[in-house]
Amino acid sequence: EIIYKHFNTLSSTNDWGKIHLPTCLRNAMTVISADEQSSGRGRYGKRWFSPPGENLYASFCFFTDEDQTCLSLTQLLASCAAHCLE
């Protein structure tokens, strides 16, 4: 099951996910997206800025079991899937 939460503007999709993580269903993936972020962050804490509506602003909340051997590949898989949607 995938649950979508979309907003016109958020400070950060990642911050929203962290705050609301306790309300996310353990057997579903929650996708948080926005048309615009006012305080987005990139990798290594760098500020993420781009014009509203020009890029993908999204975070994904999901739970895994104890075997996380493939978890490091999740980001690569997601970016490949997003590229295929273009």
Please characterize this protein's 3D structure.
The protein is α+β, with helices and mostly antiparallel strands. Helices cover 22% and strands 27% of the residues. It contains 2 helices and 3 strands; from the N terminus they run E-H-E-E-H. Strands 1-2-3 form a 3-stranded mixed sheet, with helices on one face. Helix 1 (13-20) links the parallel strand 1 (2-10) and strand 2. The radius of gyration is 13 Å and the shape is globular. The model has no long low-confidence stretch (mean pLDDT 82).
Mean pLDDT, as a whole number?
82
Number of strands: 3
From the N-terminal CA to the C-terminal CA, the straight-line distance is: 23 Å
| Secondary structure category | alpha+beta
Strand content: 25-35%
Radius of gyration: 13 Å
Percent in helix: 10-25%
Main sheet: strand order: 1-2-3
Q: Which shape, going by the Cα principal axes?
A: globular
Number of helices: 2
- Order of helix and strand elements from N to C terminus: EHEEH
Which runs of at least 5 residues are low in confidence (pLDDT < 50)?
A: none
Structural topology:
Elements: E1 2-10, H1 13-20, E2 29-37, E3 57-61, H2 74-84
Parallel strand pairs: 1-2
Antiparallel strand pairs: 2-3
